Amino acid sequence: MGATFDAHFTDGTGAFHITVNDQLFQNPDDWGVGYMMSKIPELNNIIEGNGDGDFYCTNKSENFIRVKFKPLSGDYWGVKESNMNPTIDIDDEGVIQFCLAPKESVEPVCIPTVLYVPDMTIPEIGMQYKYSYRVNGGAVITKNENAGGAPAKAVFVNILGYYGFFDDLVTTNSGQKAFLAMQDLPIQGGSVDHPNFVQAQSNTIEFLLTPNAEHDLIQTIFGEDITLHSCALVNWNIGT
Description:
Elements: E1 6-10, E2 16-20, E3 23-25, H1 33-39, H2 41-44, E4 47-50, E5 55-59, E6 65-71, E7 78-79, E8 89-90, E9 96-100, E10 114-115, E11 129-135, E12 141-145, H3 152-161, E13 170-171, E14 174-177, E15 179-180, E16 187-189, E17 197-208, H4 217-221, E18 226-237
Parallel strand pairs: 13-15
Antiparallel strand pairs: 1-5, 1-7, 2-3, 2-6, 4-5, 6-9, 8-9, 10-16, 11-12, 11-17, 14-18, 15-16, 17-18
């Protein structure tokens, strides 16, 4: 087993000079290790230490680091029983050396959209509404829509499922797609735990407010930008 992102010690008192990747940080005034780490900005950007009696330190950087604690006055630490870092070495003079791995980043959790379109009739304005969208962070596309006097659910489902803009991603009843759009159901993104899961795949469709639009369809229906998330392709079979 290799280095972990943290290291745990017992008897964590006393003063040390600290070296990180061959860069020496001199202890200016018998500072404790945790205090010294917090007070020297360059050191604080790399490593963090805490403890009351026992002591643990963690890697704050995105790289592997080598650390050495050299005691000023013969302070001897031990390795805490719960420590999982096998790289710690403490010599007969109390010099401590060890490696710390970067803390693993946590992958963001994909949460599929379940969007309820407001049950409303879009106001008559005597002209077309504008709306803008983009797919998976691509170019923003702006369209016009004759929506006045129509139910918002019908208009939004038509845009998603019937105009051909999102044929690769959206179905209105069945098939292996990322999203389902039907008037009598909420707009749904595919989930990895759906019974008809096909494969994990992240997709987004953003409906954005259109700058300087006199009559903005997304503003009228939702009042703000809307992002639809899908986490998987699903074999949608509604009503079968």
